């Protein structure tokens, strides 16, 4: 009798486990497309904050090339560069970058750069900087990153591409210099990357829009 009871309970437990797994799998499959759509919408929102819809007519999420110099950009792995075009002509690129010199770890950001080499905008995507101090690099916490808009490799001069404490033109935060210094350096490296790869990025964007293979 004991053996029969154990066998029966084992069978019931197996059926319950299979039923539960089926429910979980069904829930995942039914929500997977929605999850992907939500992620895509969030990514697109971040891109449009830098290069707004009125400046381009392509889907930047679908117009990408992979980074080929992760060291210059500080990246841990290759990531996508998003390309913007208007009527088939290159408008700008949104380049990922990482500063490994944050106060408490990596600072991941994206840098939008116009065709003429000026900055369209910067957004910090993730960091672990000190709340109330270093987190002012977040656009929702302060407009500090907007100081990069319209800057370029020559504006200011290279020796001025730093925080004021280091003789540069960009503000640091009260009680926090490491974080803004790290972000400023990463933005400058993104500009260098764009300058080195400008023609390739333009060609890739315009070739894709022309429909060439």
TrEMBL record:
GO terms for cellular component: plasma membrane. Its cofactor is FMN. It is found in: Cell inner membrane. The chain crosses the membrane at residues 12-30. InterPro entries: FMN-bd (IPR007329), Ion_transpt_RnfG/RsxG (IPR010209). It comes from Litorivivens lipolytica. Residues 102-194 form the FMN-binding domain. This is Ion-translocating oxidoreductase complex subunit G. Its EC number is 7.-.-.-. It is an enzyme of class 7 (translocase). One of its GO terms (biological process) is electron transport chain. The modification FMN phosphoryl threonine is found at residue 177. HAMAP family: RsxG_RnfG. PANTHER family: ION-TRANSLOCATING OXIDOREDUCTASE COMPLEX SUBUNIT G. Belongs to the RnfG family. It comes from the Bacteria. Part of a membrane-bound complex that couples electron transfer with translocation of ions across the membrane. It is a single-pass membrane protein. NCBIfam families: PRK01908.1, rnfG. GO terms for molecular function: electron transfer activity; FMN binding. The lineage of its organism: Bacteria, Pseudomonadati, Pseudomonadota, Gammaproteobacteria, Litorivivens. Keywords: Cell inner membrane, Cell membrane, Electron transport, Flavoprotein, FMN, Membrane, Phosphoprotein, Translocase, Transmembrane, Transmembrane helix, Transport. Coiled coil: none annotated. The gene is rnfG. The complex is composed of six subunits: RnfA, RnfB, RnfC, RnfD, RnfE and RnfG.
């Amino acid at each position: 009798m004991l053996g029969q009871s154990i066998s029966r309970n084992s069978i019931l437990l197996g059926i319950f486990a299979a039923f539960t797994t089926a429910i979980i799998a069904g829930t995942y499959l039914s929500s997977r497309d929605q999850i992907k759509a939500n992620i895509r919408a969030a990514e697109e929102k971040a891109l449009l904050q830098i290069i707004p819809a009125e400046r381009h007519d392509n889907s930047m999420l679908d117009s990408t090339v992979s980074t080929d110099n992760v060291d210059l950009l500080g990246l841990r792995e290759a990531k996508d560069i998003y390309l913007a075009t208007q009527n088939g002509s290159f408008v700008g690129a949104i380049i990922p970058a990482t500063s490994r010199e944050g106060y408490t770890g990596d600072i991941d950001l994206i840098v939008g750069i116009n065709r003429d080499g000026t900055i369209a905008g910067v957004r910090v995507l993730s960091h672990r900087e000190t709340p109330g101090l270093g987190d002012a690099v977040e656009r929702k916490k302060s407009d500090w990153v907007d100081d990069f808009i319209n800057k370029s490799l020559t504006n200011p001069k290279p020796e001025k591409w730093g925080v004021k404490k280091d003789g540069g033109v960009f503000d640091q935060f009260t009680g926090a210099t490491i974080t803004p210094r790290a972000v400023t350096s990463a933005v400058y490296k993104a500009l260098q990357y764009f300058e080195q790869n400008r023609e390739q990025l333009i060609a890739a964007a315009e070739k894709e829009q022309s429909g060439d293979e």
